[in-house]
């Protein structure tokens, strides 16, 4: 029932407005939070409730907001024929031929979960079977692929670079497939099961027709995740005409258009970041003695930024090296500000793998937003990562890596993203990595740069809502806001971060409805 009354009780309620949790309740009426309070004040709401859910020691908190997701990348993982059981190249070609015959209107032939040991055999088989028809078979996780010459020419990517930003020419084809559009239901269910009730979605260019699906789902009442779409220019520059139309088109409670997103540099570990000081003499060939190997398109970015800001949109720039962060902070600092010295619009920097504390202070003073990846350390063992970074930038500059503490102390608004599907949202992994500073093997790094649990949970909730321009609607547990709520299976504040990886979501509420229950 849309007007049902639900009361959640727990000895650990974290509103994201207070720094500490308390023994209390959250009362929900319809799609809104009716009241939040201490346990002693719960009785009238419990008596009037249709359902009371006692969560014990579970942490009741606002729904999580993931500010960097790619449905397009997630969809690639299950696109086309299932190749996981293929024994040879002929089996790969046969499975993809059957898929293509069932999808005659699709220009390409696709497959997923190709065994990596079949990459060479599959490439030969696809060439022989499909000829002038583009054919692409992705490995598990879509990290690489086999493709024929027609696909290389038609789509313009290679097995070495087949991530989301590179496969944009495929998007009009696969985003139109009925099964891909239907897959958005599974995508939302996966996010809800991890406590996520809102996302900032990277919607390349004009989203290649998928904005129609978002509109249809909102009108049909099918959405359980609120979406702020960000146009990431890849096939063309920032399309302000599309942005204006999308802003006017999406004004409902679930779907909005937020602005633009663009990459600047790439990873420090790979020697592709823009640094303030040159790379070490021991860095990989091509990087030593330079501050950047592949300079970002700063002139293009500056021009886009000025036009985007003038139209009232926001821009998120993805920076990994301290030089790229400094350059971006300077670009933002030149924009119009209010009388309080804050930026007129909410521009952000994403990732900030390495950053100089002075630039964080400058960014915080202008009201900057830092979109961090709190789980990122869990991808690697300590020395596998740090040995490469030491080679590139040395031990001293490593101290400025993953400096979430510096962002928080500088007054930046910190929020959390996963770069999904690179990572899948996990509050346990986030606490382990961003509060404990631990790599996958349990070894720490820069533990002075970490956040407290309260700061991290606020970043995952209020910070994300603020980043999406929706803090008046959700992101904290307050009466009148949408009832978007995440409940963890234990008190997250009493767990040692090193033991936090297995914290799970027990319950998720979206728009007043229970959408996930463990």
UniProtKB/TrEMBL annotation:
GO molecular function: hydrolase activity, acting on carbon-nitrogen (but not peptide) bonds
InterPro entries for the chain: Amidohydro_3, Metal-dep_hydrolase_composite, Metal_Hydrolase
Gene3D superfamilies: 3.10.310.70, Metal-dependent hydrolases, Urease, subunit C, domain 1
Top-level taxon: Bacteria
Pfam family, one: Amidohydro_3
Residues annotated as domain Amidohydrolase: 51-516
PANTHER family (alphabetical): IMIDAZOLONEPROPIONASE, PROTEIN LONG AFTER FAR-RED 3
Protein name from the UniProt record: Amidohydrolase family protein
């Amino acid at each position: 029932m849309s007007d049902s009354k639900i009361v959640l009780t727990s000895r650990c309620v974290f509103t994201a407005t207070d720094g500490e949790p308390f023994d209390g309740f959250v009362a929900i009426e319809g799609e809104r939070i009716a009241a939040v309070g201490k346990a002693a004040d719960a009785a009238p709401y419990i008596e009037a409730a249709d359902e009371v859910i006692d969560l014990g020691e579970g942490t009741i908190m606002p729904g999580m907001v993931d500010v960097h997701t790619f449905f397009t990348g997630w969809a690639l993982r299950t696109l086309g024929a299932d190749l996981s059981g293929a024994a040879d190249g002929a089996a790969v070609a046969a499975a993809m031929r059957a898929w293509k015959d069932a999808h005659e209107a699709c220009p390409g032939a696709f497959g997923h979960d190709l065994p990596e040991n079949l990459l060479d055999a599959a490439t030969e088989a696809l060439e022989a079977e499909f000829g002038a028809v583009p054919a692409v078979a992705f490995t598990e996780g879509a990290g690489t692929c086999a493709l024929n010459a027609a696909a290389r020419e038609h789509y313009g990517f290679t097995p070495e670079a087949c991530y989301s930003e590179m496969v944009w020419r495929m998007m009009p084809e696969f985003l139109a497939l009925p099964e891909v559009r239907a897959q958005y239901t599974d995508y939302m269910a996966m996010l809800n099961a991890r406590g996520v009730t809102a996302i900032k979605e990277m919607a390349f260019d004009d989203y290649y027709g998928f904005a129609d699906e978002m509109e249809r789902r909102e009108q049909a009442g099918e959405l359980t995740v609120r979406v702020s779409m960000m146009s990431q220019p890849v096939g063309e520059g920032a399309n302000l005409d599309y942005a204006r139309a999308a802003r006017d088109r999406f004004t409902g409670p679930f779907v909005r258009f937020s602005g633009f997103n663009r990459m600047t540099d790439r990873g420090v570990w790979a020697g592709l970041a823009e640094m303030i000081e040159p790379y070490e003499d021991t860095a990989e060939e091509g990087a030593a003695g330079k501050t950047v190997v592949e300079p970002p398109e700063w002139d293009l970015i500056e021009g886009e930024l000025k036009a985007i800001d003038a139209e009232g949109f926001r821009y998120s720039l993805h920076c990994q090296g301290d030089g790229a962060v400094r350059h971006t902070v300077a670009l933002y600092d030149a924009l119009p500000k209010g009388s309080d010295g804050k930026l007129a619009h909410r521009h952000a920097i994403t990732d900030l793998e390495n950053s100089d504390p002075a630039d964080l202070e400058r960014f915080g003073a202008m009201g900057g937003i830092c979109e961090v990846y709190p789980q990122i350390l869990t991808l690697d063992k300590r020395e596998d990562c740090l040995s490469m970074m030491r080679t590139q930038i040395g031990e001293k500059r490593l101290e400025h890596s993953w400096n979430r503490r510096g962002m928080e102390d500088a007054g930046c608004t910190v929020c959390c993203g996963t770069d999904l599907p690179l990572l899948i949202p996990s509050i346990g992994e986030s606490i382990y990595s961003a509060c404990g500073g631990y790599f996958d093997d349990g070894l720490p790094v820069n533990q002075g740069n970490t956040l407290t649990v309260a700061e991290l949970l606020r970043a995952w909730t209020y910070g994300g809502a603020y980043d999406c321009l929706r803090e008046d609607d959700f992101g904290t547990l307050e009466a009148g806001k949408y009832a978007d709520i995440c409940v963890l299976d234990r008190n997250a504040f009493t767990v040692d971060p090193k033991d936090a990886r297995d914290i799970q979501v027990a319950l998720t509420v979206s728009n007043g409805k229970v959408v996930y229950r463990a």
